[in-house]
Amino acid sequence: xxxxxxxxxxLSNNVTEKQGINYLIEEQTGFFKIDKEMKRELLDRxxxxxxxxxxxxxxxxxxxxxxxxxxxxxETHLDDILFIELKxxxxxxxxxxxxxxxxxxxxEFNFGKLLGDRFRFCFVCLNxxxxxxxxxxxxxxxxxxRNKRIQFQINL
Length: 156
Fold this sequence. Notes:
Elements: H1 3-26, E1 31-33, H2 36-45, E2 58-60, H3 73-76, E3 82-89, H4 106-115, E4 119-125, E5 132-136, H5 138-144
Protein name: Protein NO VEIN C-terminal domain-containing protein
């Protein structure tokens, strides 16, 4: 794959991820996007190393559906917070996540295993015929994975 194509694909994926974040926030479903500083603070509070900063995109707090997120909610609702790693697609998926194709890092899986039930992969389908999201724990995801392969990404 050429660098130019790879760059365009990365930009496209970033746009799709942002659309997925907006979809979840606009639905007022208890999902919140937090900044890097707040991510660090949250990881500190749950005694997780900062090398997992890129292993989650959002947090989910079921009790706060429809409320604007405030910084002090981290402290107040620490036990209720779920760490969310977002995977998005525009593909038509009437039975989301069945048929979902995505990439995930070893770090994301390790982070999920460390957190157990406090971590979810969130599969967001942005197709206008089947908009939906599904959250799965690592354990739930591993039960339905049909094919998993390792891909090396190398920088020279």
